[in-house]
Every structure is written in C-alpha cells, then in structure tokens.
C-alpha cells in the first residue's frame, strides 16, 4: 500500500500529523533513538561515570575520584592479563579466519563438483557455533581432561605418544583455550567467507584460466583481493566478539592455573563479582571498549574505499 | 450391580481428576499456591528446592512446599531459581537488594552473609525464632547469622564439612597426619592410582578445602576488625607451612599435577567410579553420591575419616552451608519467609537431602541422621570452622585460588605467591 493510499485511509487528524512531519525525519526515527538511548547508550554512559567514582558493590557512599583509574591501570596484574588477552584474541582471529576460509573454499568447491557431504560439512561446522560458550567449555574440559580417562590423552596413549598437560601446564593452558575458541568461532567466519565467495564474479576466474593462472595463483590474485572487504569486516566482528569472550574460559579453566588464562573480560568479571569493585571493573570495561574500537578503526582503515570498489 | 460399578468408577475418575487438577494448580514450575491467592512472596532458591536435578529430591521438596502453602492458603510463592554460578548470583542479588529490587525471601550462601549484613539489606528475623531454637544452634552458626547488635539476620539451616575419603582395599588405615597421607598416596600410585585428589582449580572449593590445613595450624585469615593478616608474622609462617604441604604432595607425585584443573567435587566422584584414585578430599554430601554412583560391592570399599592434620591431634575442617533470609520491608512477608525457613528447611529439608542440620537436637529427631556415617559427620563438626564472615573474604579466596594455581603448577615460589596474594588482598581491603 502506497503512502498516499495510507493517508487516504487515515482519519483527518492523523493525515494532518503526517503532512506536518512528512519532511522531518526526526519524529520518525525518535522511537529508535529512545530505545537505543535507554538500552544501549545509558549503560555505556553509566560505565564511564562509574569509572570516575570509587563505587563498590558493598559500599554505600560513592565519591568522584580519579583514584580508581590510576589504581586499575597501574595494577601489577594488568600487563599479564593484557598479554594473555593478546594471545587469545590474536590467535583466535587468525585461526578462525584461516579455518573459516578453508572450510568455505572446501564447501564451495565441493558444491561446484556436486560432491556428497558438503552440506554435512557446513552443518557440522555450524553446530559448534550454535553451542553456548559454557557448554563448549564443558565439552572441551572433557576432551582436555588429564585424568587417566581423559579423551584426547587416551587417544595419545593408544597411539603410544606422550600425554599433554592441556590445562595444568601454565604454558599450555592458553593454547588449549585458544583451540576451543577457534573451534567455536570458525563457523561464523565460514558463513561470512562463504557468502563473500559466492558473490565473486565467475568471469574473473574464467579470465584467469584463459591467462593460464594456476589454482594457487587464482586464489592469491583473484579470490583473496575479492575477499578483502569481507575479511576485514569479519576481523572486526570476531575481534570484538573474542575480546568479550569469557564464558568458555570460565568453564574450561576459570582463568587458571594461577592467572595463565585470565583474559581481560574474565578479569573484569572477577573484579566486579569476586572483588565487588564496581569502579575498577568500569575502568577496565572502558579500556576494553577502547581496545575493541581501536582495533576496529585500524581494520576499517584498510577497507576498500568506494572508488576502489 | 454393573451400573453401580460403572458409576463408582466414573465418580472415582472425576474425584481423581479433580484432585490432580487441584494439585496442578497448587504447584506449578514457578509457583506454589493458588494463582489467585491474595498475597505473594517472591522466593529465590538454589537447587535445594523443587528445582533439584534429582527427581526424588525435587518431588520431596514439592511435597514440603505444598504442605507449607496449605497452612497459608491466602499466600502464593512466586519461585525464582539461581544458576549454579553461586558467586555471581549472590553478587547480583546484593546489587538488587541495594537497589531495593531483591526478592522477598532468598537463599543466601553463609560465606557471603556478611556482605549483605554490612549493607543493611537483611530483615530482622529475631522475633520469629524462639530462644530455645537459637540456643540449640551450633555456636559458629549462631555467630554467623547474628550481626553486631545481636540481631538475627538469616536462618542458617544446613551445614557441611570436608573429610578424607579412601578406598579401604587400597589404603587400609586412615591417614592421621600430613606425612601419613603422603605415604598412603605414594603407596597408592604404585598400585596404578593417581594419588590423592583435591580441588586446586580456580574456584571457592580450592580455598575452602585447603584452609582446613591452615586452620589446623592455628592460622588466621583476618583479625578481629576484618583486616587480612594471613601474610604477616606467625600467620605467614603457618600459611607457608600449609601451602608447602600441598606443594610437596604434587612435587613428590603423591598428588597428580592435574589437581590444578579440578574445580568440581564431581571430578572426585568420577575418579572414584573409574577406580583411578583411592584417596580424595571431599564434602560429606559425597558419601550419599558415592553410594548411588558405585556398585554396592565397590561402595563397601569406600569410607572416610577426618582430614589429616600436621600432627594427629591438630585437626580442622571447613564447614559451610546455606541460609534463608528476607530482603522485604513488609512485616507479613518477613514472617512468611521466616516460616518457610522453619517449616520447610529447618529439619524437613535436612532430612530429605541428608544435609547436616545446624541444631544439635535435629540429629536425634530424624532417623536418617542415626546412621553410622551421619553420626561420624556430626561428631566431626566439633573440629569445624566456618569462613570468616567479613566483606573481604571473597577476594582473599580469589587470591588464594590464584596463588594455589601458581604454586602447584610451579609458576611461582610459595613465598612469592603468598606475598602477591596478600598484597592484592590488602589493596582490595583498602578499597572496601
């Protein structure tokens, strides 16, 4: 039904209202602004406000101070936490990106050749994505279990190979959490890459073939440049997602042994819910926001401009 | 005759259906009581409720709640259930209470009760429990629920304790000292076992189970004002001694390195079921779990004894448990919550779940507590010690968990790890 038709069907008062605001977008988008303001912007503003206070979950009188910022940022644990976060986020982004692309390329090629099992492969990868973080943590906890009946170590024993201290060795535990997170996030990258691969113009490959390009040359000189925007957007999304991940880690290792796997999101969780330090948690939440936005801007700066497209 | 039989059958069917409908109306998944009851009490509970994962216990609670609400027909209980992430649930509830949005009546973990007390969000329960009932409580329970001005702020209805479980067919005699335990554990490894298992991962159980060793030495976590003291003077020496004991168990192979990944009592049950361990430190409630998990012949091999101390006569064990408290300002709701604590939890729920009562007389009142095992648990409460009811305790516990992981995995030396934990706890204490 066209706007004119709606106007014709509307009562006179309503028609007057519509005519009055026909050229003004603000009244129309105001409900969205209000909803976003209440549910998204207000909590962010409150986190900024709390970071300038000394608020605790059990304290009564909060005062405005810069002390919480200096305390939180000068904490001796912070460098180790940031290093653990860097490994976790960097490894996850690289791993999920490469594996996601590999699965998507395999699925596309399988579909082109009409191979059996491409749908099963795609669905299997998606199952990991559907599993909630906590459930994923429990699944990997059973796989990594160092008990005599632990799944992965039992397989290694069967193959007469030495067992691995997946979670009890502080040097190994971060890699174990990384493996579980890559497993979980690969499906998301696969979906993004699959959609991007489908949108590449087939004539580009036909032209490359005419020019005598090998399969690897086609991949590096046709596929990857065509995927540039998708890869960068995907990196922005999975970086933000991984910086905020803590549910899988809390189930798998709880951040231990010691602080070996305590990433910044888990650190914030512990500060607020174990230490009851609301202001310290807010300062670090702002830091997380800055890190995520900073990385997003860096990735975005590499996105192809309109004229390049 | 035939028509009379048919009529009787029809009548009984109608009556049965009516009672079934009535029962359904009285107890739904999130409500106990009639939907149109005039008064509502919002109740937030743990799995010690009709939400229990064991169908028999869930059904038992359902019956207790229905019996309770029948005595208060003008009330309905609006049920809310907590997830298993207790620390987070309690912290959220504290924030809700401060904002005035907490449930009318809720389960509060005994070790965080002080956080609620210092925020003055708990209602006064004093008028609703008799002097005899209060006097009957174990002293550490009475102290735990009473605030500075001697007002009762919650009702602590169950308690527990930690013991050393052992498979008699592998370890015949109960280890009484730290040395005994190390020797027994090492001997068990020669029979293909893992040695002694205990919580060593990042969770509250790690701190609490280990604290028995520190308390056995006479160590204190905080002074009378609630300030952390575990990292200075004599306490530091005792702390290091207890810490080095656990480190030695791992370094010597008497305990596997994987203890740093154990953050769940179920892991110990699993190891017992798989016959890969003959010794573990666990909670008294695990005895009933072992009984249902293991074959009867295998279960006969399992027994328990007090947690070994540095010497045979230096013993301690951690005691915990749950309370019921009210956040309401409405006197009727506070009284209803106190009634719920008394009629459902103080006794009947103890018996239903075989969770140790907090009152001496209840051990005699219920037959389930007359078993040898429960009598032994009850006697062991003499050595029981509760966590200090101070606001800094959760952070001390967090730091001990980190320290334990660092020390047992070999990342830090014990003294270095203790200094870091104490320094962090003091920093947090200053911010409170």
What would you say this structure looks like, in words?
The complex is a heterodimer of chains A (309) and B (432). Chain A has 309 residues and is mainly alpha-helical. Chain A is built from 14 helices and no strands. Chain A has helices spanning 3-9, 12-20, 26-51, 67-73, 78-112, 118-130, 133-144, 151-158, 173-198, 202-210, 215-243, 247-252, 264-273, 278-301. With 432 residues, chain B is an alpha/beta fold. Chain B is built from 17 helices and 14 strands. In chain B, the strands form 4 sheets. Chain B has a 6-stranded mixed sheet with strand order 1-3-2-4-12-5, with helices on both faces. In chain B, β2 (39-45), α2 (55-70) and β3 form a beta-alpha-beta unit. In chain B, α8 (204-216) crosses α9, α8 packs across α16 (393-408) and α16 (393-408) runs antiparallel to α17. Chain B is globular, with a radius of gyration of 24 Å. The termini of chain B are far apart. The A-B interface holds A 54, 56-60, 71, 76-77, 145-149, 165, 167-170, 253-260, 269-270, 272-277, 280 and B 87-88, 91-92, 94-95, 98, 115, 118-119, 194, 200-203, 256-261, 263, 267, 270-271, 274, 276, 391, 394-395, 397-398, 401-403, 405-406, 408-409, 411-412, 420, 424, 427-428, 431-432.
Question: Could you outline the blueprint of secondary structure elements for this entry?
Answer:
The complex is a heterodimer of chains A (309) and B (432).
Chain A: H1 3-9, H2 12-20, H3 26-51, H4 67-73, H5 78-112, H6 118-130, H7 133-144, H8 151-158, H9 173-198, H10 202-210, H11 215-243, H12 247-252, H13 264-273, H14 278-301
Helix pairs in contact in A: 3-14, 4-14, 5-6, 5-9, 5-11, 6-9, 9-11, 11-14, 13-14
Chain B: H1 2-26, E1 31-32, E2 39-45, H2 55-70, E3 75-81, H3 86-98, E4 105-109, H4 113-118, H5 131-135, H6 139-145, E5 155-156, E6 158-159, E7 162-167, H7 178-189, E8 196-197, H8 204-216, H9 233-251, H10 265-273, E9 279-283, H11 286-293, H12 296-299, E10 302-305, E11 317-319, E12 322-326, H13 331-353, E13 356-357, H14 360-365, H15 372-380, E14 384-386, H16 393-408, H17 414-431
Parallel strand pairs in B: 2-3, 2-4, 8-9, 11-14
Antiparallel strand pairs in B: 1-3, 4-12, 5-12, 6-13, 7-9, 7-10
């Amino acid at each position: 039904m066209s706007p004119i038709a709606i106007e014709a069907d509307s009562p006179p008062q309503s028609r007057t209202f519509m005519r009055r605001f026909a050229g003004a977008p603000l009244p129309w988008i105001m409900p969205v602004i209000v909803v976003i303001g209440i549910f998204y912007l207000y909590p962010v503003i409150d986190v900024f406000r709390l970071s300038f206070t000394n608020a605790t979950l059990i304290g009564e009188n909060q005062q405005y101070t810069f002390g919480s910022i200096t305390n939180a940022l000068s904490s001796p644990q912070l460098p180790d936490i940031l290093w653990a976060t860097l490994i976790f986020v960097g490894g996850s982004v690289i791993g999920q990106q490469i594996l996601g692309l590999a699965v998507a390329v395999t699925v596309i090629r399988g579909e082109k050749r009409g191979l059996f099992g491409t749908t099963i492969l795609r669905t299997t990868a998606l199952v990991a994505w559907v599993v909630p973080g906590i459930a994923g943590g429990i699944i990997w906890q059973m796989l990594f279990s160092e008990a005599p009946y632990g799944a992965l170590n039992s397989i290694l024993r069967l193959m007469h190979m030495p067992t691995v201290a997946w979670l009890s060795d502080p040097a190994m535990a971060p890699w174990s959490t990384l493996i579980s997170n890559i497993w979980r996030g690969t499906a998301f990258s696969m979906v993004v890459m699959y959609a991007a691969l489908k949108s590449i113009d087939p004539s580009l490959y036909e032209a490359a073939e005419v020019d005598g390009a090998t399969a690897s040359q086609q991949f590096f000189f046709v596929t990857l440049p065509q995927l540039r925007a998708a890869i960068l957007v995907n990196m922005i999304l999975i970086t933000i997602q991984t910086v905020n991940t803590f549910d899988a880690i809390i189930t798998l290792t709880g951040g231990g042994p010691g602080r070996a796997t305590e990433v910044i999101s888990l650190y914030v969780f512990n500060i607020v819910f174990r230490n009851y330090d609301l202001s310290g948690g807010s300062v670090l939440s702002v830091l997380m926001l800055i890190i995520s936005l900073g990385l997003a801007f860096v990735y975005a700066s590499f996105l192809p401009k309109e004229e390049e497209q | 005759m035939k028509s009379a039989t048919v009529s009787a059958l029809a009548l009984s069917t109608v009556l049965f259906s009516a009672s079934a409908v009535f029962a359904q109306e009285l107890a739904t998944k999130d409500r106990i009581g009639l939907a149109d009851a005039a008064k509502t009490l919002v109740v937030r509970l743990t799995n010690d409720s009709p939400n229990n994962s064991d169908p028999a216990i869930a059904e038992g609670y359902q019956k207790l709640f229905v019996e309770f609400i029948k005595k208060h027909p003008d009330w309905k209980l609006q049920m809310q259930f907590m997830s298993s992430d207790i620390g987070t649930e309690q912290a959220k509830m504290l924030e809700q209470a401060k904002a005035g949005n907490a449930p009318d009546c809720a389960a509060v973990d005994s070790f965080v009760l002080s956080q609620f007390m210092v925020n003055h969000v708990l209602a006064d329960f004093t008028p609703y429990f008799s002097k005899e009932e209060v006097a009957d409580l174990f002293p550490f329970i009475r102290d735990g629920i009473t605030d500075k001005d001697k007002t009762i702020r919650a009702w602590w209805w169950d308690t527990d304790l930690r013991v050393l479980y052992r498979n008699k067919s592998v370890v015949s005699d109960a280890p009484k000292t730290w040395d005994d335990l190390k020797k027994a554990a090492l001997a068990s490894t020669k029979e293909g076992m893992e040695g002694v298992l205990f919580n060593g991962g990042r969770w509250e159980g790690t701190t609490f189970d280990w604290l028995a060793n520190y308390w056995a030495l006479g160590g204190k976590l905080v002074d009378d004002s609630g300030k952390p003291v575990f990292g200075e003077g004599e306490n530091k020496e005792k702390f290091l001694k207890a810490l080095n004991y656990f480190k030695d168990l791992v370094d010597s192979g008497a305990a596997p390195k994987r203890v740093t990944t154990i953050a769940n009592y179920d892991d110990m049950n699993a190891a017992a079921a798989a016959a890969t361990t003959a010794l573990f430190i666990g909670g008294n409630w695990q005895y009933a779990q072992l009984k249902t998990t293991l074959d009867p012949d295998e279960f006969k091999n399992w027994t328990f004894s007090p947690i070994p101390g540095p010497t045979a006569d230096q013993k301690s064990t951690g005691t915990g448990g749950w309370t019921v408290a009210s956040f309401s300002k409405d006197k009727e709701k506070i009284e209803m919550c106190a009634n719920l604590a008394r009629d459902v939890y103080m006794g009947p729920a103890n018996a239903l779940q075989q969770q140790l009562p907090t009152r001496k007389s209840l051990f005699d009142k219920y037959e389930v507590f007359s078993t040898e095992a429960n009598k032994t648990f009850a006697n062991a409460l003499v050595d029981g010690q509760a966590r200090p009811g101070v606001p800094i305790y959760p952070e001390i516990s967090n730091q001990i968990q980190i320290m334990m992981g660092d020390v047992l995995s070999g990342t830090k030396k014990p003294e270095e790890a203790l200094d870091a934990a104490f320094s962090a706890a003091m920093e947090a204490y200053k911010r409170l």
